[in-house]
Amino acid sequence: MSRPKWLPSWLFYDAAGSRLFDQITRIPEYYVTRTERAILTAHAAEIISQAAAGAALRLVELGAGSAEKTRLLLAAAVERQDTVFYEPVDVSASALIEAQMRIEEEIPGVLVCPRVLDYTKELELDPTLQSERRLVLYIGSSIGNFEPGEAQLLLENVRAALDPGDCLVLGVDLVKDESILLAAYDDAAGVTAEFNRNILVRLNRELDADFDIGSFAHRAVWNATNSRMEMHLASRTKQKVWLPALDLRVNFGAGETIHTENSYKYRPGQAEAMLATAGFAPEETWVDEQGWFAVCLARAK
Ligand code: AVI
User: Fold this and answer.
1) Which helix (H) or strand (E) element contains residue 195?
2) pLDDT tens for residues 223-253?
3) DSSP-based three-state secondary structure for 136
4) Atom 1, ligand 1: which residue's CA is nearest?
5) Which of 47, 80, 219, 288 has the highest Cβ tally under 10 A?
């Protein structure tokens, strides 16, 4: 058992965790979703026309479609060209089917071609016609949940899957006042706390573990040295947990924590530097008035 204890954050996203995350995107303290949405609402047409640069666009999204935000870009693309191919890439076939039905019904002119793939491991995209360009969307600050080296590698893999002239739109969360960050990851209604504890609910269900869920407290911490928000679960008491499926007994001291998530916050210019290292030419960055979130458009060199 490693010390400090940790769990991988992909474990959050079972059906209940995905529902809770969806709720998080609507809580007042979680500025991330609404700030990025406001940037995309204001600039969708510009992003689409700049990325297209006269060609027809084929949109690819890493993740199964971030609902309204993707819709803004798809709608702007349909305005310019009658038919838009949209390839959402996700590990979850059910999330892709749901996205396909939703989008084809809501935006006539979009043809959804879902791809069941783990884009963190492999990324092979459909070939494009000579008259087409790809625009890959990686929005929602998803890149922030990767360690810096992994994030760089991910951008390099995206670049490797593209042809020169194709584009990437990357949404990154920026460093801001600590009090705003802390509130966003520890909201008053306790939705983020429930999201964090759901990881233990999942281990109880899937590994037959006996975590006493209420005896773990949600902690959100700003780690200024590493420029990241961290989530932890702190054991309120000294206790033992039994995970029969792994034949594992785990001891917790009172106050001992399990580190469950890192959410990196970038400094202005940092995402552009990573994009350049990955073989993209950063073309334009749109930031909200408060300087909280950045949407970067970069072109594959
Ligand atoms: C999915 N990801 C970008 C979210 C974030 O902000 O890092 C996950 C999340 N964790 C707590 N609240 C939201």
Assistant:
1) helix 191-207
2) 999 999 999 999 999 999 999 999 999 999 9
3) strand
4) 142
5) 47
